[in-house]
Amino acid sequence: MRLHRITFAAGLALGYVLGAQAGRERYEQLKRLARRAAENPAMQQTAGALQAQASATARSAREKAAATMRRGRAGAAGRRPESAAAQNGRPAGAASGR
């Protein structure tokens, strides 16, 4: 039984070492590939275009949100109280005091 444990542990260690070595090689390969892609002029041009489009979209969304907030604020200033309690000088939801 002890021999099986030693064999298993040795196999586990060997697998770990070989896997780590293969993993490191693959990692280095992917790193080189990513670096080449980032240095590619076509990739840089595409990234620049996407960044410009994202900026324009964000600017448009910010402007629309600001306009909506201005309209909402202007509409809230002109509203009348909606409940009878508010018309009697008490805030809506206040107890009647009986």
Question: Your description of this structure?
Answer:
The model has no long low-confidence stretch (mean pLDDT 81). The radius of gyration is 34 Å and the shape is elongated. The chain has three helices and no strands. It has one domain. It is 81% helix and 0% strand. The chain has 98 residues and is mostly helical.
Topology:
Elements: H1 2-39, H2 41-77, H3 84-87
When the domains are counted, the total is: 1
Q: What characterizes the major β-sheet? A: none
Low-confidence stretches: none
Which percent range fits the helix content? Answer: over 70%
Strand pairing plus helix content: what structural class? mainly alpha
Determine the mean pLDDT.
81
Instruction: Report the C-alpha radius of gyration, rounded.
Output: 34 Å
Number of helices: 3
Beta-strand portion reads under 5%
Please tell me what the overall shape is.
Answer: elongated
User: What letter string, H or E per element, gives the SSE order?
Assistant: HHH
What is the strand tally?
A: 0
State the end-to-end CA separation: 86 Å
Oligomer: single chain
